Amino acid sequence: MSRELVIPSPNPIGSDADDLENELRQSLDQLARRIGRSAVHHLKTMYPAALSAVPKNAEISVANYIRNQINFEMRPVIEIAMKQWRQNSEG
Predict the structure, then answer these.
(1) What is the pLDDT of residues 2-46, one digit of tens each?
(2) Residue 67: which of 42, 47, 37 has the closest Cα?
(3) 8 A C-beta contact, residue 3 and residue 78
(4) Residue 41 and residue 44: Cα distance in Å, rounded?
(5) How far is residue 91's CA from residue 85's CA, in Å, rounded to a whole number?
(6) Which residues contact 67 (CB under 8 A, 6 or more apart)?
(7) Phi and psi dihedrals of 20, rounded to 5?
(8) Beta-carbon neighbour count of residue 20 at 10 Å?
(9) I need a surface site. Which of 4, 25, 36, 54 has the fewest CB within 10 A?
(10) Cβ atoms < 10 Å from Cβ of 67
(11) Cα(11)–Cα(20) distance, rounded to whole angstroms?
(12) Distance between CA 8 and CA 31 in Å, rounded?
């Protein structure tokens, strides 16, 4: 698994705003997924008895919950960044 997060350039050549927004969202989702998996790994390491007491799909549920929350909470940040990018590219 690669640890490198790809951040698109602020003014990509040949890319429109929708492509840039999709790249930003995908980059954020990659980061959120890694954070979710890392949190589950931490739980496995620090609290193995707790995780052994729940169904196996609880690990996936926790990782996905964290991922979804990060994506949801960061949505306004992407919208602000896109608004600024559009303003800069227009003038």
Answers:
(1) 566 555 555 554 467 788 889 899 999 999 999 999 999 999 999
(2) 37
(3) no
(4) 5
(5) 10
(6) 29, 32, 33, 35, 36
(7) -65, -45
(8) 21
(9) 4
(10) 21
(11) 9
(12) 14
User: Hey, what are 29's tokens?
Assistant: 């989702």
Q: What is the largest CA-CA distance in the chain?
A: 58
Q: What is the pLDDT of residue 14?
A: 45
User: Residues near 1 by Cβ (< 8 Å), separated by ≥ 6?
Assistant: 34
DSSP 11: S
Q: pTM of whole model > 0.85? A: no
Tell me the per-residue pLDDT of 33-87, one tens digit each, with 9 for 90 and over: 999 999 999 999 999 999 899 998 999 999 999 999 999 999 999 989 888 888 8
